[in-house]
Design a protein that fits this description.
405 residues; alpha/beta; Rossmann fold; 2 domains; 5-stranded parallel sheet; 12 helices; binds iron/sulfur cluster
Amino acid sequence: MSQSQIVPRPKIHVFNELPHIYEIDDMMAFCKKHERLYICGAEENQEYLLKYFDICGIKVDGYTVTNPAEQTLRRYRKIPIVAVDDVIRQSGAGIVLAVSDRHYRHFIPKFREAGFSDYFAMTEYNKRAIANQLKPRPIEEMTFEINIADHCNMSCQMCDHYSQLAEAHCVDPGIFERDITRMGEIFDHKIACITLLGGEPTLHPRITELIKIARRAFPSAELIILTNGLLLLELEHAPEGNIWSICKEYDVHITVTVYPLKFDYGALERKAGEYGVPLAMSSNIHAEQLTKIVKISDKHTFDPAGKVGREYCVCCLYFNKFNVLKDGRYYMCPVAAHIGIFNKAFGQNLTLAEADSLDIEKVDDWKRFAEFSANYVPFCRYCDLKNWRPHSPWKASTKSIEEYI
Ligand code: SF4
Ligand code: SF4
């Protein structure tokens, strides 16, 4: 494969900026108070803000700008563009100031002069963050992950793949090959990155075979194994193949999550160096006492009643970012994709709708995945994002539902 065929990946390993949730609350209260609503500005960020209001069920009457004749809408559905001088004379009208701050001087003095105070000034951060969450990603930023083993050799509190609760289950290599081959066709064999994870991916006895299959389907993608690393040293001598030499030969990167365990993470670094395998550690392995690393577990709280407002979906770190391929379907996120494990362990019924995933056999163009991922899915109603936060230093799971509610 020549260098020019390699898909560059500028931003895939950074988290999306997540909109300020308190500002979302204030903006929603403002919108609901007004009979007629206008978005000030009519360019990219404002078009995605309209998409956001559509998701939230907020009716928008138009964009408002100084000179409507100069505007062209390109990215989302068309609505009227009205001169701001006309809007501020309408009774019951509210304006969401979504245009860049540097243009406020063209609007706010005019509003004051007219005695118009029904406007909501968004922060620059939320204008950008909401638009970025709702913008379909270009192919250079498309990724997906696959659980190759649902279970794990660790048992962490609040695991977001519910692996400490899972029965032993490894992906069937035949299904893996069928699905990833199909994804290769849809993406024309080009995607930025694929992550093989779990649970603990190194528990899959045929992991080296899966690596070869994935590489065949996507010759130039970044392939990552995301692992707790505990088995990597012994898998050098696995009868099914030496994972280190396979990773080198098939250009696979290894990312190890470091936990506060008595484990020689330095030995992994040395082994990776010996084989020339790119290795990343997700905590500081050069800390003086590795066993004293403080890893904070995040609590991803559910509302099992499914009553969470649609407006919060964009405040989720998984939204439009961590897509999952599982059993022939493409999901928004691992939280939705693996919810069956949670339901089974706790006798719950957080339900997946047809619209929570796409059947990959019915998708012909990767852009459908990009559109799907940049939109609300019904499962988001269970995610109580106002109560998602770093919770407590890492510890073993108690396997109780309180870790999730
Ligand atoms: S090591 Fe990772 S996958 Fe395994 S239980 Fe902990 S958080 Fe979950
Ligand atoms: S289903 Fe939950 S975790 Fe997944 S994107 Fe929606 S809010 Fe986030």
